[in-house]
Amino acid sequence: MKIGIVGCGFVASYYATTMPNHEELEIVGVTDVIAERARKFADYFHFQYINSLEDMLSNPEISIILNCTNPHNHYEVSKASLLAGKHVFTEKPMGMDFKQSYELVELAKQRNLYIISAPSIILGEYSQGLMKALNEKEIGKPLLAYAQLDDGAIHHMRYWTWISKTGVSWNYEDEFEVGSVLEHAGYCLTLLTAFFGPAKEVQAYTNCLVPNKVEKSSKPLGPDFTDTCIEFESGVVARLTVGSVAPNNHFLTIVGEDGVLSTDDLYWSVQQKVYIQKRIISDSNEREGSHEYLTSKEEYKFKRPDDFKYKTDYEVNVDWAKGVSELVAAISQNKKCRLDMDHALHVMEIIDVIENAKHFSGPQKIRTVFETIKPSDWLYDEK
């Protein structure tokens, strides 16, 4: 299916690099508000350069717009694309707030189109493994989850060395202005809601602890820390911590009545291991070892798909184009996409509560809902 890429900055290189993993994806052209950046991107990846968004949207060959623009432009680009009759896969966040996101989803539904939002983390191997373990009651009824996505003190790192394959520097000013909630909370929330269903109530503390990360900037910076408690309709309770002040920590722990599931990195590596510990049942009267109630951590084994060939550089082990491929499959087969727009909207409602907590939100009811997310076909394929 033919695709146009809007925005040729840092993250667009991740998508372009992994596109060849999916032969059904064909890039017709790319465009950017900075023409030189788009031309360099087009030359590097051997794509066609298109002069403007308007020219791209008027191209009848293009069915899908891949929106890799600055977060502040996601809403306008996606809206224009939907109005032009194009399906949309947008980088996160879908909009800068719940209102924008709601409008986009309603517009897509009215026009019988899809709007799909990153992250596509739920399609990753370890995510599917966790879903399988939970569905098969490997740890009994889930009770509690801890999700942590601390990225380290980025403002103390040498981020000026982070340059894409096409020579685009990581936009640290924009990253700090948008903040860690809109940029990164979606990774954790997408997983937690996919595993445990719709959230019922949220309570958050959110703040910008280091307001002077960008020198000589008059723009206010987004939050760099949040701690949030979520109660799900299913009864599960989760604690979510997201930030860019504390040292790197990307763990996920799920506690059930009969055991514990965990991962070490819920962010950068889709092929990481999933660990399981089972509850020890004993009626021994011996004092020694009486505090031990879980087995040692062991790898939870599950079927994995073939490795993907085309990968991004450095520490990022993610098939970024997999979400776009999932959208193409949904369009081609006229079926519900696993990256469901109602699910994405639900995540955005939670993010909106967290983003606006400043500093304590108090308990906030969540009103949107979504249908159960089904596991990927390969997880149970007998072939």
Description:
This protein is globular. Helix 4 (74-83) packs parallel to helix 5 (98-110), helix 5 (98-110) packs antiparallel against helix 10 (341-355) and helix 8 (180-196) crosses helix 10. The two termini are 26 Å apart. It is 28% helix and 19% strand. It has helices at residues 12-18, 35-45, 53-57, 74-83, 98-110, 125-135, 172-178, 180-196, 322-333, 341-355, and strands at residues 2-6, 26-31, 64-67, 87-90, 115-117, 142-150, 199-207, 225-232, 237-243, 252-256, 259-263, 275-278, 298-299, 364-365. A 9-stranded mixed sheet has the order 13-12-11-10-6-9-8-7-14, with helices on one face. The chain has 383 residues and is an alpha/beta fold. The protein has 2 domains: 2-117, Rossmann fold; 122-315 and 340-379, Dihydrodipicolinate Reductase, domain 2 (2-Layer Sandwich).
In short:
By secondary structure, this protein is of the alpha/beta class. It is 28% helix and 19% strand. The strands form two sheets. The protein has a nine-stranded mixed sheet with strand order 13-12-11-10-6-9-8-7-14, covered by helices on one side. The chain has a five-stranded parallel sheet with strand order 2-1-3-4-5, with helices on both faces.
